[in-house]
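To close the section, here is one more complete example, presented without commentary so you can practise reading it yourself. The ligand is adenosine-5'-diphosphate.
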Amino acid sequence: QKFVYDFTEGNKDLKDLLGGKGANLAEMTNLGLPVPPGFTITIEACKVYLDSGDEPAELRDEVSAHLDALEKRMGKNLGQADDPLLVSVRSGAKFSMPGMMDTVLNIGLSDASVVGLAAQAGDERFAWDSYRRLIQMFGKTVLGVDGDLFEEALEAAKEAKGVTVDVDLDAADLKKLVKQFKKIVTRDAGRDFPQDPREQMDLAINAVFDSWNTDRAKLYRRQERIPGDLGTAVNICSMVFGNLGPDSGTGVAFTRDPASGHQGVYGDYLQNAQGEDVVAGIRNTVPLAELESIDKASYDQLMKIMETLETHYKDLCDIEFTIERGQLWMLQTRVGKRTAGAAFRIATQLVDQGLIDEAEALQRVNGAQLAQLMFPRFDHGAASVLLGRGIAASPGAAVGKAVFDSYTAVKWSRSGEKVILIRRETNPDDLDGMIAAEGILTSRGGKTSHAAVVARGMGKTCVCGAEEIEVDTKRRRLTVGDTVVEEGDLVSVDGSTGKVYLGEVPVVPSPVVEYFEGRMHAGADDADELVAAVHRIMAYADRVRRLRVRANADNAEDASRARRFGAQGIGLCRTEHMFLGERREMVEKLILADTDDEREAALDALLPLQKADFIELFESMDGLPVTVRLLDPPLHEFLPDITELSVRVALAESRKDANENDLRLLQAVHKLHEQNPMLGLRGVRLGLVIPGLFAMQVRAIAEAAAHRKNAKGDPRAEIMIPLVGTVQELEIVREEADQVIAEVEAATGTELRLTIGTMIELPRAALTAGQIAEAAQFFSFGTNDLTQTVWGFSRDDVEASFFTAYLEKGIFGVSPFETIDKDGVGALVRSAVEAGRATRPDLKLGICGEHGGDPESVHFFHEVGLDYVSCSPFRIPVARLEAGRAAA
Ligand code: ADP
Ligand code: MG
Ligand code: MG
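Output:
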C-alpha cells in the first residue's frame, strides 16, 4: 500500500484517498497551474494512525523519499541553515471543514535557518515574522499551548511600540517576540520549541491526524452529517511567501458570486501577509478588484486561471492564492460552497453556457436548498429602523435577541429563546454558538471570513463586515452612532440584503412560495431571476422522475394548496380530524352507546358530516387519487382527560349532584384507558369491535363519490385500512366494505371503482405482505408507526430523552424518524414490496410517513420501486425535486 503521493501523481477524483485539498492540488498541478511542489499523505495513513494510535510503519520512509525528491527539485534542504526549504503541513479531509482542523506554516525555520532565510530574501523583518508565526502556530496546534498567550505577547509588543498592526513591528521587535514566544512554549508545553526541522514536520503531521478528533471538528461533522471515521489527509507543500513586502500578498476568490451566482470578480486580497491573516480578519482586506491596480500582471493571470478552473470543474470554484514578489501561486481550489439561491441560478447558468446538461443541473441542487428558499423573508414595505449594513453573506430573515458570545447563545437558545450571535468576527470556537443562533452578525471580515463561510455551509442567515456597528463584547452591547443595543434586545438580520434592523421586522412569504402558489411568474428583477431558475429546475425534475408525489391533506384547503404545489393526489387523508370540534359530542355518544339503537343514531348523525367533507375533498382533487384512511387513533383521544373527569365527578358527588352522563363517561374512560395506547385499541381493531363504524365511513366515502360522479366529477377514492397485522383483519373489513359499496352503487345507479388497500405499518404486516396483498389493492407504508414498532420506541417519548445521547455516540447519524433507517425499517419495506408484487403484480405502492418529504428517504423509496411518496403540502416541491434527482 502506498501512503504518499506527489502532487503530480494525484487527481481530483481521488478525494477519498487524498482528501479534497490534496486531490485538487494535484489536479491543478496537472493542469499546469503554478502550484508550489509538494506531496500528500493519504487518508488511509491517518486511519491507521487513529485506529492504532501509531502511524503505519512504512510511512516514515515513504515521507523521507518524497522529501528527498522535493529537496532535490527545490535545490535546498528542509531547514537548511544558509537557505532553508520551508513547507506547510496542511490538513485536508474528503469534505471541506473550513477552519476546523490544523495547518502549520513555515515548518523548517529554526534559530539557525532564520538567519539564512533573512540573507536569501534580503529581508530580515520577513524572516523573523515568519519564524514567530511558526512558533505561534506550532505552539498552539502541535504542542497545545494556549493561543491567547501568544496573542497577548503580540498585543503587548504593538502597544509598547505604539502601533496597531503587526506590519509596523520591525525585525528587532520580532526578534524579541520570537524569544518571548519560545519562552511561552517552554513554560506552557513543558518542552522547548524543536529546532530539528524533520522533527517539526513529523510532529506537525501527527498533530494534523489528531486534529480530526478535536471537539470542534466532531461538532462540525455532526452538524454537517459528515461521517466520523473518515480521517484526514496531510499535505506537505513548499512555502511561498505573501509577507515579503508590498509586492507580495495573499487572497481568496470565487469564480462567481457565491451569494447570487453572478459572474464577476469576487474575493478579498491582503498585501504583505500570510494566508491565515485573510480568513482571520486580522487586518482589513481590500476587494479583489483592487489587485488590478496593485499588480496588473498577477491579476490578469489570476483571472485567466479562474476561467480555466471554472471551465475545467464546470462549476463555481473557490481558490486561495499567494503572490510572492510578483509571482502568482495557487494554494487551493475546490468546488465552492454557495447559497441555496445561487445553487439554483448557477445550475441553470451552467446549462445555458453549455457546460453541463439538465441531468447534471439536477445534481447541483438539492431539496434542503429548495426548502430553505421557501422560508419567509422580511417585509420590505414594513416600517423598520435600519441599524447598519454589511455584506450579505448568507441569505435568510433572522430575528432574535442580541447576544455577544457563544456561551450565552447556546444557553439562551436551550431555554427556547431565539438569538442573534453578534461578534466582531467569529472563529472556530464560536461554532456551537453559531449553530444555536438564528442568525450571525459580525462587524468585520468579508465574504470569505470564517463567519460567512461557515454560515453559508450551515444555511444560516449571516451578515458580516457591518463596519458602522461597534461591537463591545465586554459590555455585551453594540453601538451605532447614538443607538445602543444591549444584550437581549431584539434585532432583525437580513442575510439577503446585508441590512440589520432594530427590533422585529415582520416577514412575508418567499418569492419561491409565491411562485408555487401561482402568484408570481418569471420576470426581470432579482427575486424573479431566482424564480425562473427554480421553475426550470423543477421542470427538469418533473420530466425525469418516476415517483409520483402526493400530499397528506385532510381538508379541501390543504388539498388545493397541495395541488398548486404539484401534488398528484392525496396519499393520506386522516379522518380523525373530522371527528373533532363540535363533532366530538357525537363521537362521545357513539362510544357511550349501550344499545344498537343508540349506536346507530350516533353513526347516522356522523354520516352526513363525513360525506360533506369527502365531497369537498374529492372536488378539490378531481381526477386525482385520494386515499382516505379509516379511523385510526385510540378512542380515548376523543374523550375527556381521565384525571380531569375523575375530579369533576368526585366534586359533583360530594355535592350530591353527579350527572348521569358524566358518570357513564367516566366509566367509559376507565374502560378504554390503556397503558400503551399506541399499541392498544386503534386502527383496524376499532373497526372490528365497534359495529358499524367503518361501514359508516365507507358509506360516506361511497356516497360522496357517487355525488361527485352525478355532478360530472371524476372522484378517485381509495379506502385505506390502518394498522393491519394479518390478512384476516383486512378480509373481514373488506367484505363489509364491499357490501356497503355495492349497496351505494345500486342505490345511486353509479359504478364507483373504489379500491381498498391497507397501510403496512406493523412488522407483522410487512413480514406477511405476500398474504396481505391477496386482500389489498394497494399498500401504503406508514413509516412513522413502522419505525416505532420496529425499533420499539415511541417518537413522542424518546426524541427528547435519549436521541441526543444516541446521536452523540454515533448510534444514529440522524433520527430514524427524520430519515428512514434503511438497514432495518427500510429492509422490511423492501421485502414487503417484493412479496406484495409477487402476489399481485399491479399492486400500487406508496409511503405516507414523514419520510415522504425527506430527501434521502425519497431516494430510497425511488430505489425500492414505490409508485409514489406522500408528504405534507409544503414539502411537495422538495419531494418532486428529490424524486427527479433520484431518477436523473
Ligand atoms: P484551511 O484548510 O484552514 O484553509 P490551509 O491548509 O488551506 O488551511 O492553510 C491555511 C492558510 O495558509 C491558507 O490561507 C493557505 O493559503 C496558506 N498556506 C498553506 N500552505 C501554504 C504554503 N505552502 N505557502 C503559502 N501559504 C500557504
Ligand atoms: Mg485553505
Ligand atoms: Mg399509523
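Once you have examined the C-alpha cells, check your reading against these statements. The chain has a mean pLDDT of 92. The first strand starts at residue 4 and ends at 6.
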